[in-house]
Amino acid sequence: MDPERFELAGIVLRSPMAAITNVILALTCFACAARLSAARDPRTRMWWRFLVSLGVAALAGVVKHGLAEYAASSWHQGATLLSNLSGGTATYYAQRATLETPLFGTRSRRVLLALVRLQLVVFALQVTLKPVFGVVLMHTGLGLVGVCAAEWTAYRRGLVTSGWHLAGVVTALLPGVVYLARWPSHLWFNHVDTAHVLLAASCVLIHAGAKADATPAEAL
């Protein structure tokens, strides 16, 4: 069987492994989010939104990769845009979660919140006008590097749970590396599939940190 293209019931399917790993990623995101659904503290709620946004991006990615044969259709372009926008929104919520650490006072939090909102608006405009994945990679990289720096600082200052978030966000940056390096390049499991698996691992680590942040009654 061709690992890149085959036909099923008259429908042409592409990149089956990318579609499968996207399903795995989406299920991981939603399962982790479900275990945080009772949490009410702002930081954990932001991480919950991160997981849900990434899960939506992964589900739309199933269509984006699996039905790439129909890339010229409006519905496929809509799914691709949804995947890209949801991925960018996930980065925004990771930034918002980090702003809830004790590192930031009221004034600095307000200024930084305005900046990350501006970044999200600029990203949304860019990815709508030029729907290429490179825009998503750039936005995610810029956003998560800042999150890493803040979580590392918080961890050094005694916020132990930031260690989990730091590990998760660093893992979430690795897909960009393998994507740009286009490694591995095996026909049945390539850099895109590896990126999805790394993101799923990132979600598990971030969930562990968010669960530790939540009160015992809120963390399932």
Protein model, in words:
With about 220 residues, the protein is mainly α. It has one domain: Rhopdopsin 7-helix transmembrane proteins. Helix content is about 75%, strand content about 5%. The chain is built from 7 helices and 2 strands. It has helices spanning about 15-35, 40-65, 75-100, 105-130, 135-155, 160-180, 190-215; strands spanning about 5-10, 10-15. The chain has a two-stranded antiparallel ribbon with strand order 1-2. Strand 1 and strand 2 (about 10-15) form a beta hairpin. Helix 3 (about 75-100) packs parallel to helix 5.
Order of helices and strands: EEHHHHHHH
Rounded to the nearest angstrom, the radius of gyration is 18 Å
Known CATH architecture? Up-down Bundle
Q: What fold name goes in the CATH topology slot?
A: Rhopdopsin 7-helix transmembrane proteins
Residue-averaged pLDDT: 93
Which structural class should the secondary elements be placed in? mainly alpha
Give the beta-strand count.
Answer: 2
- Low-pLDDT runs of 5+ residues are 216-220
What is the count of structural domains? 1
The strands making up the biggest β-sheet line up spatially as 1-2
CATH class: Mainly Alpha
For the record, give the distance between the C-alpha atoms at the N and C termini, rounded to a whole number.
Answer: 43 Å
Largest sheet geometry: 2 strands, antiparallel
Helix proportion: over 70%
Task: Tell me the number of helical segments per DSSP (H or I, 4 or more residues long).
Answer: 7
**What coarse outline follows from CA principal-axis ratios?**
globular
Q: β content, as a range? A: under 5%
